[in-house]
Write a structure and sequence with these properties.
Blueprint: H1 28-53, H2 57-62, H3 66-74, E1 81-83, H4 86-96, H5 105-127, H6 139-156, H7 158-162, H8 171-180, H9 187-206, H10 212-227, H11 229-233, H12 257-288, H13 295-311, E2 318-320, H14 321-329, H15 336-351, H16 353-356, H17 361-375, H18 378-387, H19 389-404, H20 407-427, E3 432-437, E4 440-445, E5 456-460, H21 470-480, E6 490-494, H22 503-518, E7 522-526, H23 530-538, H24 541-545, E8 550-551, H25 554-565
Parallel strand pairs: 5-6, 6-7, 7-8
Antiparallel strand pairs: 1-2, 3-4, 3-5
Helix pairs in contact: 1-4, 1-10, 1-14, 1-15, 1-17, 3-13, 3-15, 4-12, 5-12, 5-13, 6-8, 6-17, 6-18, 6-19, 6-20, 9-10, 9-17, 12-13, 18-19, 19-20, 21-22
């Protein structure tokens, strides 16, 4: 399942360090700087994701210590950054809703169980070589899904930015409640939120490489400490943040079959998003730099990263497109950057958690609000509408389901719509006929079908033949056998675009061959691949039409027909 040709040294096939080796000495300083940059940008981001996930703030930092290091060591991608992610965080929060109080020890334990379950599914997918499943979540529905998640995330942070109680079960109820509570706005809290958003946006406009979120966080902490915002102005702050490295151990919860059954749908939903999002990101960067990349090896790396998350008291991690782009923009070209990031976060955990206790909660709400807004892929939706209007409605429906019904339901719908879209393309393929003109064969749609030469029809089927389009195949063969003005003697089915023929389609071909023979029409085939020819032999189609009914190409059919009729 490789996405690009190898650029690394020939013969090197280490089970680990594929994302680090070979190290280029001249690149090491740039990779180190990229790791520092990622730490500066990702620390406030992952802390923000804890609000989406319903986890304690410190667990966000845990996601970029052990999990990021494990993927750096065992993954195959040199670029993919693993850590907390808004989509999987939102799915997890939806799945755990009502099972335990948000951010409670039991909630954290359940989050750990979910991370271990997602890891188990990822490793099982590797054992079964199921990396290709990532291709079954189309980009269209992924854009719609992430747009819906972005809307949901952004709405959920409004109350925190305004300093009001908030409430409500879903995004719409939350928005209605926020409007009803506008009279309770804490103005100093709102001022902090506006300051954070303004700092991020202004610095981003000056230079996108400036860590605006980090600067806003540091500024808000300093201001909170200097003015005692909590006591003097009623601005909610994080309070005591535990220091030290995460403790290692199994989640403190009784794991039984009943719990696994209850958590399994959420774990599967997260597994699918991890599979699709991580593979798409790794593939894009491997192609950009002409490097080796294996989806199946990455599954092991992602599985181990989530085992690390589950055992270190944090929540599920995913391949992050935004963090990957951060490192790439800073010049990072290997997983060495991620190891540097992990080392910096360790320093923060050991020595710098006390200042975090002064951080206003509105800061995280504002950072997460920005993350949600950026997930709303307006440009992507607009492009889909311009290029594929029907697919736009698929993306829009997916986004609406996420917002109005739920994240888990949204991902299930996304999968179903992806499969439906795939089926629809093959259900009614745009088949064609060919005719001879000025010594060459020209292609016309079925609606304008005509004989290639008097008595010969050349029919090209432009998709694999399977149960969903077998009825269309039978109808078009029957219709083409009645073309004029000359009675049809040969009907050639060109198989150049067919790479598989299933049981239903083979039965249709057998039945059509008999019906055509009864009408005096000979069914012949051209351009059949070895695999397709084997399908036809095994299913009895070859026996029905005869060995002499197969030709290497359309020119051979034309020559044979002309020779026979002459």
């Amino acid at each position: 399942m490789s996405a690009a040709t190898a650029k690394s040294k020939p013969g090197r096939n280490l089970p680990i360090l594929n994302g680090i080796l070979p190290l280029v000495s001249s690149q090491i300083p740039t990779d180190v700087i990229a790791g520092v940059t990622l730490a500066a940008l990702a620390i406030p981001e992952v802390m923000g994701y804890t609000k989406i996930a319903g986890m304690p703030v410190i667990t966000g930092l845990y996601t970029i210590v052990i999990p990021i290091a494990l993927f750096a060591l065992f993954g195959s991608s040199r670029h993919l950054v693993v850590g907390a992610d808004s989509a999987t965080a939102a799915i997890m929060a939806a799945g755990l809703a009502g099972m335990a109080a948000v951010a409670s020890p039991q909630y954290v334990a359940l989050a750990g169980v979910l991370a271990l379950m997602a890891a188990g599914l990822l490793i099982l997918a590797r054992l079964l070589n199921l990396g290709f499943l990532a291709d079954f979540l189309s980009r269209t529905v992924l854009i719609g899904f992430l747009t819906g998640v972005g809307i949901q995330v952004a709405i959920g942070q409004i109350s925190g930015m305004l300093g009001i109680p908030g409430g409500g079960a879903g995004p719409i109820q939350k928005l209605v409640t926020d409007v009803q509570q506008l009279g309770q706005i804490n103005w100093p809290t709102l001022a902090v939120s506006v300051g954070v958003l303004g700092t991020i946006l202004i610095l981003r406009r000056i230079n996108k490489k400036i860590p605006g979120a980090l600067i806003a966080v540091i500024g808000a902490i300093v201001l909170s400490y200097a003015l005692n915002l909590s006591s003097n102005y009623g601005v909610a702050v994080l309070g005591t943040v535990p220091s030290g490295l995460p403790s290692i151990g199994l989640p403190d919860v009784t794991i039984n079959w009943s719990l696994i059954q209850r958590l399994l749908p959420t774990a599967i939903s997260m597994f699918i998003v991890i599979l699709a999002q991580s593979a798409a990101t790794s593939r894009a960067y491997a192609t950009r730099y002409n490097e080796r990349f294996s989806e199946n090896v990455d599954l092991v790396g992602l599985g181990l990263a989530n085992i690390g998350a589950g055992l270190s008291g944090t929540f599920v991690v995913n391949g992050s497109p935004t963090k990957t782009q951060m490192v790439d923009s800073a010049g990072g070209r290997s997983q060495l950057s991620m190891l540097v990031t992990a080392a910096i976060v360790v320093i923060v955990l050991l020595f710098l958690t006390v200042p975090l206790s002064f951080m206003p909660e509105a800061v995280l709400s504002s950072v997460v609000f920005m993350i949600g807004v950026e997930l709303v892929d307006y440009k992507g939706m607009r492009r889909i509408l311009a290029e594929r209007p029907m697919e736009f409605w698929v993306a829009a429906i997916t986004a609406a389901v996420v917002v109005f019904i739920g994240v888990e339901q949204g991902i299930i719908l996304a999968i179903l719509l992806s499969l439906l879209a795939h089926t629809s393309f093959g259900y009614k393929p745009k088949n064609s006929t060919l005719f001879e003109s000025d010594g060459a064969l020209k292609v016309v749609p079925i609606a304008d079908a005509q004989e290639a030469v008097p008595g010969l029809v050349m029919y090209r089927f432009n998709h694999s033949m399977y149960y969903a389009n077998s009825e269309l195949l039978a109808q078009e063969l029957s219709k083409l056998a009645q073309l004029g003005p000359d009675p049809v003697k040969w009907l050639c089915c060109d198989l150049i675009a067919v790479d598989e023929i299933d049981f239903s389609a083979a039965a249709t071909l057998r039945e059509s061959a008999k019906e055509l023979k009864d009408k005096g029409v000979k069914l012949v085939f051209s351009s059949a691949s070895e695999q397709v020819r084997q399908n036809l032999d095994v299913s009895g189609v070859t026996e029905a039409v005869g060995q002499d009914a197969f030709f290497p190409d359309l020119e051979a059919v034309l020559s044979a027909y002309k020779a026979q009729t002459a």
